[in-house]
Amino acid sequence: MPKLFIAAGACSFGTHVVARELQLPIEIVKVPLRTPDSPIHHINPLGRVPALQLDNGEVITENSAILPFLADQTSDHQLFAPVGSSERAKIQSWIGYLSSELHVGAFRPFNRPERYLADSEQHPAIKAQARTQIENALQHLEKQLQDGPYLVGQRFTIADAYLGVFLGWISRFNDLLSQYPGLQRAYTQFTQRPSVQQSLAFEQA
Ligand SMILES: N[C@@H](CCC(=O)N[C@@H](CS)C(=O)NCC(=O)O)C(=O)O
Fold this sequence. Notes:
This protein has 205 residues and is α+β, with helices and mostly antiparallel strands. The protein has eight helices and four strands; from the N terminus they run E-H-E-H-E-E-H-H-H-H-H-H. Helix 1 runs parallel beside helix 3.
């Protein structure tokens, strides 16, 4: 059985939710991060989650690859869209935006300023600028979510599963999410999904 390597509360949460949402026959393997003895180092040389190991031993990394790959395991495009459709391109566009602009462009310097400058005296300035980048992204996302809880069309897709990761992180910032009614609504609906509740329970156990 393929194995999906995830870590509690990490950006792998969206892939975890998609695997459960589609009831795919995949073993979810929870690993610790940032410890040299974590099994993830034998799977992904970067030591990062998510990583999907197939039955033949091949490993797929990066949310932007794993999310579509999981969705393509079903034939009915339940969480994605047909090849060549503009809907599919829009879903991929949001995944690209979340992965590059919000995760690596904003959350990473906010959470790990030491990866940008070793001098700890500079870290508050890096975090402050990163916080501005996070809020810029929230404003952009809010515009998209004004008319409904989903990023593309009228249904939950892999882009929304991935967005849920970041809404979860943002929900821990004091009162920030409540300033964005569209995002707040999307997060409320996300957390009500059985797949999300099952994934949370598994990760927190
Ligand atoms: N670009 C990667 C980023 C993956 C990533 O940064 N994962 C974090 C968890 S949110 C991680 O495993 N960090 C451990 C480390 O960097 O040592 C993706 O989207 O899959």
